[in-house]
Amino acid sequence: MASEQMIGGALQRRDLATARSRRRRGAPDGAFRYGMTLPTVLALLLVVAFPLVFALYVSTHDYDLTEGGIGAYTGIENYARTVGDELIANAARNTVVLAVSVVTIELIIALGLSVLLNQPGLRFRNVYLAILLIPLLISPIAVGLIWRLLLHADLGAVNWALGLIGLPKQEWLSGQTTALPTIVGVDVWHETSLMIVIILAGLTALPRDPIEAAAVDGANRWQAFWTVTLPLLMPVLLVAVLIRMIAAMKTYDLIYILTRGGPGSATETISYSIWKNAFTSLDMGRSAAASFLLLVVILALTIVLVRVMDVGRDA
Amino acid sequence: MSATGFPALRSGPAGPSRRFDLATALTHLILIVACLTILLPILWTARTSFASRRLAYDPATLLFVPTLDNYTKIFVGETFLKYFWNSLWIGLASAAFSLAIGSLAAYSIARFRTGGQPFSLTVLGTQMLPPVALVIPFYLLAQRFGLLDKGWALAIVYLSFNLPFVVWILIGFFQGIPRELEEAALVDGSGRLGAFWRIIVPLSLPGMLAAGVFAFVLSWNEFLFALVLTGRNSKTLPVALAGLMSSQGDQIGAICAAAVTMIAPIVALTWVIQRFLVRGLTFGAVK
Amino acid sequence: MTIAKNDALLKTALKQRLDRRRLLQTSGAAGLALGTGLRFGSQAGAQEITFSRDYDGTTLNLLMEDLLETTIIEEMLPEFKELTGITVNFEKVEYGVMHEKLVPQLAAGPGNGTYDVLEVDFYWVYEFARSGWVEDLGQRIADSGGAIALDRYIPATLNIVSQADGKTWYVPFYAYPMGLIYRDDLLNDEAFKQEFNAATGNDLAIPDSVEGYVELAKAITTWKGEELYGAAMTAQQVDPIVMEFCNFLYSSGGDYYNADLTEPAINDETGVRAAELYIDCVNNAAQPGAASANYNDSIAVYSQGRAFSSVSFMWMLAVVDGDEEAVARGKNKAVVMPGETGLSGAWGWGIPISSPNPDAGWEFVRWVESPDVARRRALAGSLPTQAAPYKDEEILAKFPWLPQAGEMITQGKGLPAVTKQTQLVEIVGRHLADAVAGGATAQEAMDAAAAELTELL
What we know:
The complex is a heterotrimer.
Chain A: H1 2-7, H2 10-25, H3 30-59, H4 77-83, H5 86-117, H6 125-133, H7 140-151, H8 157-164, H9 179-205, H10 208-216, H11 221-249, H12 253-258, H13 270-281, H14 284-309
Helix pairs in contact in A: 3-14, 4-14, 5-9, 5-11, 5-13, 9-11, 10-11, 11-14, 13-14
Chain B: H1 14-49, H2 53-56, H3 69-77, H4 80-112, H5 116-125, H6 132-144, H7 151-175, H8 179-187, H9 192-203, H10 205-221, H11 224-229, H12 237-243, H13 252-263, H14 266-277
Helix pairs in contact in B: 1-13, 3-13, 4-7, 4-10, 5-7, 7-10, 8-9
Chain C: H1 3-20, H2 22-26, H3 30-37, E1 59-65, H4 68-84, E2 87-93, H5 95-106, E3 117-121, H6 125-130, H7 138-142, H8 155-161, E4 163-164, E5 167-168, E6 171-183, H9 184-187, H10 190-200, H11 210-224, E7 229-231, H12 239-251, H13 269-284, H14 295-303, E8 307-313, H15 314-322, E9 332-335, E10 344-350, H16 358-368, H17 371-380, H18 393-398, H19 402-411, H20 421-436, H21 442-454
Parallel strand pairs in C: 1-2, 1-3, 7-8
Antiparallel strand pairs in C: 3-10, 4-5, 6-8, 6-9, 6-10
Helix pairs in contact in C: 3-8, 11-13, 12-20, 20-21
């Protein structure tokens, strides 16, 4: 430890750690390790690097499309204005509510359904699977439009069905308080199937031994699940939650189709807000700044999640 | 835990099989409810795909004469088959390549912590920006290199979108495979890459599949970049769908017809998934 | 109808304009428009219009909104190809994504764009022109050999979608004015009228003020709600709510800015009153879900015969009448928004600086807006911006509501002449939607909007 501190610097620390592991495990040389990551790094550099750097550059400049090219350097002004913007605060609130609700609900439902689907000898499994996976292949745009049709307050099937059992017409997407929950509902309907795929894969990849050992030890199914299966599944669950959360915080096309951020700004999320402002105010510098702020927030959340759920990681 | 078939049909010890009865019944009940939640809107979509505009907005009319106009519109009037094909091959290509490239990186990170957390977080970080921030530079790039309206340009863009997620998903799965297996292969004289190919890849098939499906779906559904980077030839489904909306009235019937056709590959997809991803078959037993 | 009536209409409109000094403020070329407008009854002598074959073999790409008007032209394209050898490709998209698709490639620099000719909506006029993204068409029009002549157009359309800051940037294409569409059959049905009288104590009549209209709509909903609503409305952000509101605002005598564009006027007494009326109408006279309804939703409601009226675009009338199964088919009439001034929108043709083939593109514009082609388009259902079709017997026979549409165009207003009109729409829409949802009073909402509108000046 002391020698580590003396050396300092992430690079040296890393080399030391891998050297240690190398001594322990006879690990391969750097060429192999870095070589494996090379195609990925190259692909990302080639495609995403320029746009990312461009966006970063532009976020610190005055870049209003109607005024021609990229203007003067403005430092953190774009960022400051974004943070102080009331609209952003509202959008941030909505985004957090949406993301947290969506990820939590989808995780629970997907986990439950995956476990059920995974039971050996389950009859009709293929039928269930086929039906549950259908939403995967329907674009968010179609999903949004179909649900708009169903939830039309005056002429939609859902309100009509409610009427059949004597309930009044609900506002769904046009109510100030009902719009966001409705969007959560539609998103859950659409995206749970993706989580199911990942979690099913995780369940399948689990080694049987620990579970069978637990059964032999007399644990019933519940106990086996909680004490053995779930912890083993953690890495996969973490990834599923992370990915879903990142996607949820970037949601904008569903918002665009379902409510355009309304009624009022009740369903305006950060990503939608940024997108809308980019194309109405044409102030690209500002929208780039807002985008990077969002990135920072998502990154922070990611780090927190990884630390919290990082139970089963190999040392 | 090794029951096969409906427990109710088995003869066996009274206690455990009765418990199995209830559990299985509940299982089916829950699954059926979940399936209905998915199925009912889909059935309504199918209904609407055969309905005229007026009937689309008239839920009370349950029986009506179906019309094929909507399907005619999208397949004859609009060449939806072409957009379907575009989405399909772009999705498959970007998924396949991101799997090939990403699995290597994921292995390196999972086993050897290459680059540590900063590296893996940076990789994931490229996907934390909302798409709108990158649209203009992407457009400028594509335009500069004459890549507009070219399907494979979009496939490459999607490749870079999929990579971070594929890498992260696979890291999770690779970590679940015990090191001893590769050690054994190495001792047997195979190279590192060989160990990867012959041990890791087959064992992590579920994960590969999940990552592949994920990447495919991501590309299949992506809208903004498809909108900006494609034109008449390489148009993908989401853009084509958006084209069916109009301020003079969304062509909801056509949209539903398109949605119904989009579901068609689900049969193939399910077959693949249930073949490789479901525990019920004795698959992936690690002995 | 008759030249005399149209001239009278025009003179009234002109008088109203002069009174408000609106025209002179919104465009420096207004004087020119006024002058040429008074002559629009006479045709510029029958010139032989020829098209060039210089661009034989070129392919033009255009981004067009996916609508009837576009389809009409598409069907005529083979003719253009025969005349000039130019192939024209329409890339058709939905309105909501047009702007998004256009902006990146307009900003790409000279010759670097994808589209050769632009279809420009009236609220991108200043944005594109002042950003230097489109060509000044003045010289091209002068040299167009009679194919394009600004005096052929209804002057109002020149202000809305053609001229800005004293130059001509676009050639008007088709107009989409807004007005009041209503169920004429119900208006004239004796039984309905008597029941209405009994229920409300008033006579059923189309009102002549915004206040009166809102009263009527509310009365109908109170009386027959669930079966028939007074109005089918579209209070969805961003576009629908503002387009609808413009009619309420303008017909109440209000506007977004004051006459010389130095200060917002939206939060003065008239503006706030208009907002209050609008909010009242959405919440108490419109169909359920109006707060997030778009045009698609409200057309559905009106088509099914569940609304008595709708403040909407004239093409909505065409859609309803053209839908064989619509309950409301053939039973409608349209009239200028009660209060005499509605929103008038229009599309125009422009040549982007980033056009790969500007000259070939201009040939296309010359052809598509030449009098004969324009007339045939009008006959097929595209609402013309040129004045001649409004007096054409054949066209009038086919579209009996054409005169009212003409009135709406002549008396209508567009959006104020700020560069970022899209942003203006977004700002107003957001605050008004807030007020509709109950999150702010009309005064607060308009004050907040005014604060942001100041920054656009």
